[in-house]
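seq as requested:
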Amino acid sequence: MSFSSETKRELCRLPITRKCCAQAECYGVLLYANRFDQGEARIVTESADFAARLPLLLKKGFHIAFDRLPDPGSGKRVFSITAADKLAVLSAAFGYDPGSSVAHHINFGVLEEEHCRSAFFRGVFLAGGSVTDPAKGYHLELATSHYSVNRELLTLLREAGFDPKSAARGANHMAYFKRSEDIADFLTAIGAPLGAMELMNAKAEKDLRGGVNRRVNCDAANLDKAVDAAQAQLEAIRRLEARMPLDELPPKLAEAARLRMENPDLTLTELAALCEPPITKSSLSHRLKKLSELAEQ
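struct tokens:
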């Protein structure tokens, strides 16, 4: 089961207790459903959990039932209301007059309470939302064919403290989130804290793995640099030795040359500790640089 399906399953386990919230959730579902107009309200879903929740929402919120229920064993589950009196009940509850308006709009007046807004967002996500597996990336979108509804949803989300982006894909208009923190906050707000926690755990694991990889790569790069530097120092000392005995060098330079020749794999810090008396890494680096300069002369 996909992460999106698991999240919807978690949402569908929430109890339906308040009539106002059941209506608000139905409102979100209908605005993001396959069809909602004066002739029919049709909801199509592949989620068995959402399909089981829909009749309960409609009964709790409006005391009505669907005129058409899904065929047993069908992949896509289709729910439909065609009775004029039932559609009138839904339209009246949301202040929608299909005879005077063609375009849908969100009636902010029925979503004044915070718990109703959360229920509305939940319905929107269940009907028109999806969220990417956090192991692959961070993306949550809410898609509808109604331009005005999408624009007004953006306003409603921002009033609730979210920061959604907007885009169009074909005939659909979308509000979406790309930041993991925004997605987790939204999932928590609509009633999916377990999904939000799974997302943040996946992000923490990904960040940890990325940090380890960066450190390993950094250490490997530093090691390569140290090896290359040591080889360059050895080459310079050998060129110098080919021209003159190293014992004829000043004592400090001779000591540095001998230690590097005897310990080609040690770091500058380790070599500096072998000097008599021990010196700093920068002092040893200065002596080896002087040896390289003499070799170049």
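The mean pLDDT is 86.
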